[in-house]
Design goal:
mainly alpha, two-stranded antiparallel ribbon
Length: 660
């Protein structure tokens, strides 16, 4: 007996067992395992986005069919699939009937209610004849997917995995629930629903699936049906025309064979052959017409479907990837320890699971699938580029960012403001990455593109400063450097960053030095010097405060050596914590202090004053350089002080060496 025969016999035995009193615990006893399009109506799907409410059974959570009166005999022992609903997040029906636009909870309840109606027909304990007689395919240990496997074989439905039948309706509901739970920030439930949705999705975009009439019953957008019908008609006409041409060619061969066998004379052969060749010529013309008609239909009907379905599949995998990434990020930190009193240090200490922190395998894998399903879908490419940037793989990040820009340029006239801002961020990332790998010309080009494309002043303001530094240090273009420094100094950020102000004014002085405008150069250098003195004073004040606090701590230490006093011990700990805070503040100020090119500012001021013949002021700058400079700068300052003192004594001007 064939497999199909055995399945049919199993089906008959199953029906017999049910009539013999077997309790199958189904929601609807009129049929055995309804198809999704039989359990869920297209009209109900379309009502989900409207203000019309679906009736939900209070106990089972199953959506009642539209147009059907409420029944008190409805089975409440529904056992939906684990993957289909999230029982932990099911929201109870509000006591007051909701009106107007649906809330997020109502949307979730209605979508889950439709899924519950479909899943409720499957057996919870699978008490059927094969469980008793064979105990092989079905058992209480197997999950409910085994039931769908049997029904899939019986119904002979198409299925990519051959495990779960393809269903656009169930796919749509699971995907909708995934998005709703994501909006609620219930990411684990969202992942489960999107994963279930993809199990019901036929990821193949082949033409035969588009033309298969059995799949049309679950097409939610009914406007798509006429396009499928038109393409199926064009395909059938083409096949008929091809068969007709093939038959005409065979007819010519048969006429030739009959003549060779002597079944007709020469005149009859010539006349029959001429007629058959004429018919073949007409059939070929018809075939060309049908081929053109089919190609037009393929381009107008099938290609838009293929592109939209590929994009939808890619978006689903992309959404799943983003959710998985969020779960991975929240799962990285296993434990946080807040330490407030230990002498070893204070703050939040995080214990990491390093196995979870390495790579981005799940996230990357899903993004790769999304990219393969639709290579013209930009977001997955940008996310991969961002991840490569985080991982330090700069060359790969640059390649993916460029690919993203290529795709976005194809639709540059229809970009939203958010997409344009994303492109400007990519320009900035490309500028930074190219600068890091010493591609200075490319980096400058991307910096300029970022400035031209971005409209976010909060992001542009700090970039102006970085561009000034870039053109000053990396390119040596003092004109552009001066331009960007002036833009940054005109903003509000400059008032809160004296160390950056000092750097900017020094950069402005370099352009004036290039122009040989000593007066303007000195003006900018003095501005830089004044900001430097503010940072130096803050540094000195903080060091002085630390010294005083250490003296106070030492006093308490001496007191605690004699006797342990609770009040003194508590005060000692408080002072110790305060000392730790002061040292952190000092380190911050020290970092700012070191970022200022103060020695070069002082050195240049000394040279300018020497040129102005203000030797005493020049000597004072050199003396200051002795206190703060490195070894070569100190030696250079001592040498110049000696030279200037000799000039003061005998009036002879001596040649000045250059250090920088």
């Amino acid at each position: 007996m064939t497999v199909l025969g055995r399945l049919i016999v199993a089906f008959v035995f199953l029906i017999s067992a049910l009539h013999a009193g077997e309790d199958d615990q189904r929601n609807d006893g009129r049929a055995l395992y309804l198809f999704p399009h039989e359990a869920i109506q297209i009209e109900e799907i379309q009502l989900l986005d409207s203000e019309t409410r679906l009736k939900i059974d209070d106990e089972s959570g199953i959506a009642k069919p539209i147009g059907e009166e409420e029944s008190t005999e409805e089975t409440t022992d529904a056992n939906p699939e684990v993957e289909s609903t999230d029982t932990e997040t099911t929201v109870e029906e509000p006591e007051v009937e909701e009106t107007g636009p649906k809330s997020l909870d109502t949307q979730i309840r209605e979508a889950e209610g439709l899924l519950r109606r479909y899943y409720s027909q499957f057996l919870s304990e699978k008490r059927i004849w094969e469980d008793k007689n064979r105990g092989s395919k079905f058992s209480t240990k197997n999950d409910q997917n085994e039931v769908r496997l049997l029904m899939d074989d019986l119904k002979n439905q198409l299925s990519e995995s051959k495990l779960i039948r393809d269903s656009e309706l169930v796919y749509y509901l699971h995907r909708r629930l995934g998005r709703l739970h994501s909006e609620r920030e219930n990411y684990s439930a969202a992942v489960r629903h999107l994963q279930a949705a993809l199990q019901y999705r036929n990821l193949s975009n082949k033409e035969d699936y588009f033309l298969n009439e059995s799949t049309w019953k679950e097409v939610i957008n009914q406007n798509e049906i006429p396009r499928r019908q038109a393409h199926l008609q064009a395909w059938n006409q083409l096949k008929k025309s091809e068969d007709k041409v093939e038959e005409s060619q065979k007819k010519i061969h048969r006429i030739g064979a009959d003549f060779a066998k002597g079944k007709m004379n020469f005149n009859s052969y010539q006349e029959s052959k001429k007629t058959a060749e004429l018919a073949l010529e007409n059939d070929k013309k018809d075939l060309l017409a049908q081929q053109k008609n089919y190609e037009d239909s393929y381009r107008e009907n099938y290609i838009p479907y293929q592109k939209s379905k590929s994009r939808e599949d890619a978006e689903t995998f992309y959404e799943l990837a983003i959710l998985v990434r969020k779960l991975e990020d929240t799962n990285k930190e296993r434990l946080k320890i807040v330490n407030k009193t230990s002498f070893a240090g204070r703050g939040v200490f995080v214990l990491f699971d390093y196995k979870r922190n390495t790579g981005f395998s799940g996230y990357e894998y899903l993004l790769e699938i999304a990219y393969k399903l639709d290579p013209s879908f930009p977001p997955p490419i940008k996310n991969v580029a961002d991840q490569f940037k985080i991982d330090g793989q700069k060359i790969k990040a640059i390649d993916y960012y460029k690919k993203y820009l290529e795709l976005m340029s194809l639709n540059k006239d229809n970009l939203s403001d958010e997409e344009r801002e994303d492109i400007s961020k990519v320009y900035l990332n490309l500028a930074i990455l190219n600068s890091d790998i010493k591609r200075k010309v490319q980096a400058a080009d991307y910096y300029e593109k970022f400035i031209k494309s971005s409209k976010d002043q909060d992001k542009l303001q700090p970039v102006y400063f970085e561009l000034g530094r870039f053109y000053e240090k990396q390119i040596g273009n003092y004109s552009l450097s001066k331009n960007y420094y002036e833009k940054w100094l005109s903003g509000s950020e400059a008032k809160d960053s004296p160390e950056k102000e000092s750097v900017a004014y020094y950069g402005l002085s370099l352009k004036e030095k290039q122009n040989k405008r000593a007066d303007k150069e000195e003006e900018y250098l003095l501005q830089s010097y004044e900001r430097y003195k503010l940072i130096r004073k803050s540094k000195a004040d903080k060091e002085s405060e630390i010294v005083e606090l250490e003296r106070e701590i030492n006093r308490y230490k001496r007191e605690l050596l004699i006797t342990t006093n609770d009040e003194s011990l508590a005060q000692f700990r408080i002072l110790q914590l305060r000392l730790d805070d002061l040292k952190l503040e000092k380190d911050t100020i020290l970092t700012k202090y070191k970022s200022i090119p103060h020695t070069r500012v002082i050195l240049r001021l000394a040279e300018i004053n020497e040129d102005k013949k203000e030797l005493n002021k020049s000597i004072s700058y050199y003396q200051e350089l002795i206190d703060i400079g490195n070894e070569s700068e100190v030696n250079y300052a001592l040498k110049n002080i000696k030279r200037l003192e000799l000039t003061q004594s005998d009036g002879i001007k001596r040649k000045r060496d250059r250090l920088y």
